[in-house]
Amino acid sequence: MFVKKIKVLVVDDTIVYRKAVSDILSEMPGIEVVGVAHNGKIAVSKIQTLKPDLLTLDIEMPEMNGIEVLQYLQQHAPQVSAIMVSTLTSEGGDMTMRALELGAYDFILKPSATNIEASKQHLRTLLTPLIKAFQTGRTTIGSLQSGARSGVLARKTTTTTTSDTRTFPTASIDRKSIAPGTGTTIRRHGKSEIVTIGISTGGPNALARMMPMLPGDLGVPVVIVQHMPPVFTKSLANSLNAKCALTVKEAQDGEAIQANIVYIAPGGKQMKLVASADGLNRLIKITDDPPENSCKPSADYLFRSIADYYVGRATAVIMTGMGSDGTKGLQILKQKGTLIIGQNEASCVVYGMPKAPAELGLTDVVVPLDKIAGEIVKSIK
To answer: Domains along the chain?
Structure first.
């Protein structure tokens, strides 16, 4: 895979973070830190002369904040992209979602540790994979914003049908492509009665493009694990709810799932489905169980519960993200007759979470981001 050299401008109103981010980036192959700025106004003045490919952009700054810088980039420098640096607050979460809507590549969370070295290591862990993904050269402010607009337009003007030469296996076909050791596959019973999605890096933008393409009368509930910190999942749900025909909300413990509602697992918690006391309904169960695959919430954790209660009657979608969270859960779902849709490599910000399931033969269909909604609809209608 081609890895391009990129020039980065570091924008933050705190000198400690400016230096830490600059030092981390300078250690990475193919990265040139071309300058720093302590507020958005200075950043804008330097963009014309330094011509960076990417900004690391603090959201909350005096004079001109990160949102205003993104608005400037949209109008005057759409070839430049940005990774936002946010704080773990309700306001920070809302502003971060707004930044992603404006085309920001992704975001990282400012470390809470007071120890400088600990904070620097935290930033390094978060920044490194995002920078490596950006070096593949897939997205800019202009292209992400254009895609987001087209996604919203699709909800208003189409019926979410898509054309693709690949088709789903019918209910009478056994799934043969199971990873070794997962056992015999149960036949699919027919149309799905629930949709479950696992997604991580690049997820907010991907969901903002895909979810508005789903019709308001989808007819089934949707449950999502998006790897994200506490507070931010509520902001994500609110942001998606404003765009989608479906109702989107952060899931709450004990609520019964309903058709045409999208439930997003709360950041920092685990989410699964359980049976109600009378056995007639499926309830959301929010727990403080340990992380799985270093993830909390974890797609594997959610997927296992779907397999328990929707044998042969579920659609699972695995989308852009780092790591392999979701693969073990998909192996169980596959064994229980679930239809599995994978996002293709070209449309992923990071081709991690969908890669292992595809290589193991777990996915029934692999499609670009803009065709996922259509495949979901085909599986339940």
So the answer is: 6-143 (3.40.50.2300), 163-380 (3.40.50.180)
